[in-house]
Amino acid sequence: MPADRAQVQLSLAPVVKQTAPSVVNVYGARVEKRPSNPFFDDPFFRRFFGDGGFGVPRERVQRSLGSGVIVDPSGLVVTNNHVVEGMTEVKVALADRREFAAEIVLRDPRTDLAVLRLAEKGPFPALTFGDSEGLEVGDFVIAIGNPFGVGQTVTQGIVSALARTQVGISDFQSFIQTDAAINPGNSGGALVNMRGELVGINTAIFSRSGGSHGIGFAIPSAMVRVVVESARNGGAAVRRPWFGARLQQVTTDIAESLGLPRPAGALVASVDERGPAAKAGLRRGDLITAVGGQPIDDPDGFGYRFATRPIGGTLPLTVLRGGKEVTLSVSLVAAPEDPPREPVTVGGRTPLTGITAVNLSPAVVEELYLEQAESGAVVSELAEGSPAAQFGFQKGDIILAINGVKIASSRDLARATSQRARYWELTINRKGQVFTTVLGG
Question: Which of 186, 213, 263, 385 could tie 250 with a disulfide, CB 3.0–4.6 Å?
């Protein structure tokens, strides 16, 4: 309870004044050209129906709106990847109404984060990173953003839960849950503590109506810092440590067979013999219960704890093996590009026309978050509107065979697609599921 009248009249205004100038509005735009219609190009037709033909414009502008946070005085802004994904023009409006063009310097779909750089030189008001690992349920937090495009808005609440992993928003899931009102347009905005430090980037809400129901999620600053540091150091992609093992959820049945009081931890399903996990002595069937001394409940929790560690040095893992607890030390190294990517773009008249495929390597597996695969050529890029896109191919598909010929590399794929065929029999590994389909040429 408040001790006196002065405490009753306490205001969050000082924290807001300190932090609000660092929170910006992010506007994205992309021009989509409509297919040309030969009738609309006819001078007679244009005389009566105008340049667009029946009033249909040749171009359509797709727009996005979100929020962002200045995290470096030089003009680095962090926002959600889904705010700027596919956008060709990005602008940032500051709280003082100044507006600047911005360049996308790094996109990280796995965390749904992106880093922008303002076109003008600073200094700009930047927020400092707080310790998201030190947050506790019940701590007061403030959310700042641009909900529904109405302008900068401040809401206040508490930390409702920590380490939420079953949200399905990104690959690395360990979200801060808050009841501070977060609405569409808040994406990419700041979640700050009472010291005015950035502890999270607001990214999603749970809602049946599209509005706030008091269940919002933010990416912890520990993960945001990793992405920002990669951009600050000039990286085009985020470099994370490579583990080299596949983990699975511990079910109630597995917990009972291991003699555990509850299902918790990450069970090792397979180990890559070349990877750091194998070199550390990890085996199939081991149960990882803690990372760096911090308990984990599931594979998502492990992925977050491991991915937020910088490359270099080692990390202790607490492992349950045969009923006994052992500690293993795993090296924090980047995944190697072995074999080299050797990208191949498929042309001609095939169902695969429009894909760019690369060789499988530990680096590619980590980057595209693939299931473990021994060989094949993986789709790394997919041209929009291409035959491959229309046939339903996806980024991350691994091509294993074409017309009965095994595909072990991107060069094999190039040779196989250079042949003419009336029908194409394709064997594909998609997210660990292998299937064969026959498509027309």
Answer: 263
